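Anyone up for a design puzzle?
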C-alpha cells in the first residue's frame, strides 16, 4: 500500500478527536481480547496452586473493563483514512506488547519494565530473544503466557484484529499486508474470509505439531507450548537449553524442523491445498527458491562438519534444525552452533538476513526480495550490454514494474541502515562488535538469539542495559512490521492533512 494510492482516495478528513476515538476503539477491542487470553494462565495457576494466580485474574479484569470501555465508545459514521492504517497497525502491536508485559512485572519472574517489555515485544513479534534465566524452574503459567503471546503474534493477532476492523470499516486486508507484506494474491471474494481461513490453517498446523510432539515423548504441556512457538516460528521454549532439551530424541528434532519450514511458507497456499488445489505449493517460485536454499545450506554446512569429524546423521539432523531455525527466524537451538568453529559465526550471521516466505509467520528480509534483486541485477546487466533493449521482467507470472523494484530497493536500503544504526547504538552501551551487530541483525530480522557468549544460543539478553533493551524493542517492532510501517510515522508529511 503506497502513500500515493492512499492520497488518491477521496475521503473526508477526520478531525483529531474522531481519529483518536477510532484508534482507541481498535486498541480497546484488542486489549479486551488479550485480557480474555490472560484467563488461560490464570486457570493454569489455579490448577498448580501458584501464589500469583489472582494477579492474572486482576490484570484480566482490569484490561477487559478498560478495553470494552474504549471499544464501546460511539464514533458515528467516521472512517479511518487509508494511510492511518500504518498508525493503527503500530499502535496495536505496541499496546499489545505493553499489556503482555504486565504479568512479567507483577508475577514471576518479577522483571523491571524494560526487561518485561523486551520479553513481551520479543514474544508478540515472534522474535524469541529472552531476558529470563532459569526457565526450567518457572511456574507453568508464565511459560504458557509467553507461548500464547508468540502464537498470537504469529498470525492469531491478525485474526483477532479482524473482529475489530469491520466496526471501523477499514479493509482488513490492509492490516494483513502491512504486517506480512503478503504478495500471494487475494483470491477469495472477501478479505475477512481469507484471513479467517488463514487462521483455521494456523490452528490445524498447531494441533498437528502438538500431536506429533506428544507422540514423540513430550509431556502434554511441553508439546502445547512448543507447538505454539514452532508454528509461530517464534522460538520460546520452557527450558534454558531451548530445544536442546530434546536433542537426544531425533523424532522431535525432525518434527520441529519440518514444522518450522511449514510455518515459513505462504499460508494462502495451504488454503488452496485444502480446496484441493495442490499444484501452487510445488510450483510457487518463492517456495521452490526457499526450499532449494535450505537444502543447499544444510548440505554445505553438514559437509563441513563431516570433514571435521562429525558423524553424518548427527551432523545432518542438527544442522538442518539450526539452519531452518535461523532462516525461518524461529530462534530455537538444539546446541550452541557458535562452538562448531569460527566459520559458523559468519555463516549464521549471513543466515539471519534471509527469512522465510512472504505471507508466512517468518520474519527477515523474505526470499522474494532476493529474487526481485536477482531480476533487477539481470535487468541492469542486460541494459549495460544492450542499452536499447526493452525487457519485461516477471515474477510469479506477473509483470514486475519499476515501482515495485524501487520499493524493494528502498526497503533493503532501510533494512541494512536500521541494522547499522541499531548496532551503533548498542555499541554505545559497551557491547563488543559481535554482540552489537548480531543483536541488531537478530532483532530487526526477528530471529531470536544473536551470536557470541552473551546473547548467543547458550546465553540471553538479561545482562544488557535497559537502554540497549529499549533499542532492541524498537528494532523488533520495526522488523516485524516491515520497517516502513513504523518509520513512515516519523516522516513530518505523514501528519499533515
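Challenge accepted. My sequence:
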Amino acid at each position: 500500500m503506497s502513500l500515493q494510492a492512499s492520497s488518491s482516495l477521496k475521503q473526508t478528513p477526520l478531525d483529531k478527536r474522531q481519529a483518536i476515538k477510532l484508534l482507541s476503539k481498535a486498541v480497546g477491542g484488542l486489549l479486551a481480547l488479550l485480557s480474555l487470553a490472560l484467563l488461560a494462565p490464570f486457570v493454569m495457576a489455579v490448577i498448580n496452586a501458584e501464589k500469583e494466580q489472582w494477579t492474572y485474574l486482576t490484570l484480566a479484569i482490569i484490561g477487559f473493563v478498560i478495553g470494552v470501555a474504549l471499544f464501546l465508545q460511539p464514533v458515528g459514521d467516521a472512517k479511518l483514512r487509508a494511510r492511518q492504517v500504518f498508525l493503527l497497525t503500530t499502535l496495536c502491536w505496541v499496546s499489545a506488547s505493553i499489556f503482555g508485559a504486565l504479568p512479567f512485572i507483577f508475577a514471576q519472574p518479577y522483571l523491571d519494565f524494560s526487561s518485561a517489555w523486551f520479553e513481551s515485544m520479543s514474544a508478540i513479534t515472534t522474535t524469541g530473544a529472552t531476558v529470563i534465566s532459569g526457565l526450567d524452574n518457572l511456574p507453568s503459567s508464565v511459560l504458557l503466557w509467553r507461548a500464547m503471546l508468540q502464537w498470537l503474534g504469529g498470525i492469531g493477532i491478525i485474526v483477532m484484529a479482524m473482529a475489530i476492523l469491520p466496526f471501523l470499516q477499514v479493509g482488513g486486508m490492509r492490516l494483513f499486508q502491512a504486517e506480512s507484506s503478503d504478495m500471494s494474491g487475494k483470491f477469495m471474494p472477501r478479505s475477512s474470509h481469507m484471513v479467517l481461513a488463514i487462521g483455521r490453517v494456523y490452528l490445524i498446523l498447531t494441533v498437528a505439531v502438538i500431536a506429533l510432539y506428544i507422540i514423540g515423548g513430550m509431556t502434554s504441556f511441553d508439546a502445547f507450548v512448543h507447538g505454539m512457538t514452532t508454528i509461530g516460528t517464534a522460538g520460546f521454549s520452557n527450558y534454558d537449553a531451548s530445544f536442546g532439551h530434546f536433542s537426544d530424541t531425533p523424532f522431535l528434532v525432525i518434527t520441529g524442523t519440518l514444522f518450522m519450514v511449514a510455518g515459513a511458507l505462504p499460508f494462502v497456499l495451504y488454503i488452496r491445498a485444502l480446496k484441493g488445489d495442490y499444484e501452487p505449493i510445488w510450483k510457487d517460485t518463492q517456495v521452490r527458491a526457499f526450499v532449494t536454499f535450505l537444502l543447499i545450506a544444510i548440505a554445505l554446512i553438514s559437509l563441513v562438519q563431516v570433514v571435521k569429524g562429525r558423524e553424518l546423521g548427527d551432523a545432518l539432523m542438527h544442522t538442518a534444525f539450526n539452519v531452518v531455525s535461523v532462516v525461518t527466524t524461529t530462534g530455537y537451538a538444539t546446541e550452541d552452533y557458535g562452538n562448531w568453529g569460527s566459520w559458523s559465526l559468519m555463516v549464521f550471521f549471513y543466515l539471519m538476513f534471509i527469512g522465510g516466505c512472504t505471507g508466512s509467520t517468518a520474519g527477515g528480509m523474505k526470499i522474494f526480495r532476493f529474487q526481485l534483486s536477482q531480476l533487477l541485477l539481470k535487468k541492469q546487466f542486460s541494459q549495460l550490454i544492450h542499452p536499447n533493449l526493452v525487457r519485461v521482467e516477471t515474477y510469479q507470472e506477473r509483470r514486475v514494474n519499476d515501482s515495485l523494484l524501487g520499493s524493494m530497493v528502498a526497503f533493503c536500503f532501510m533494512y541494512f541502515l536500521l541494522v547499522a544504526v541499531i548496532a551503533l547504538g548498542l555499541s554505545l552501551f559497551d557491547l563488543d562488535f559481535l554482540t552489537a551487530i548480531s543483536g541488531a541483525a537478530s532483532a530487526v530480522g526477528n530471529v531470536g538469539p544473536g551470536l557470541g557468549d552473551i546473547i548467543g544460543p547458550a546465553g540471553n539478553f538479561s545482562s544488557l542495559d535497559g537502554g540497549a533493551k529499549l533499542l532492541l524493542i524498537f528494532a523488533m517492532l520495526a522488523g516485524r512490521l516491515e520497517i516502513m510501517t513504523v518509520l513512515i510515522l516519523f516522516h513530518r508529511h505523514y501528519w499533515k492533512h
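A detail worth pointing out: The chain is about 65% helix and 0% strand.
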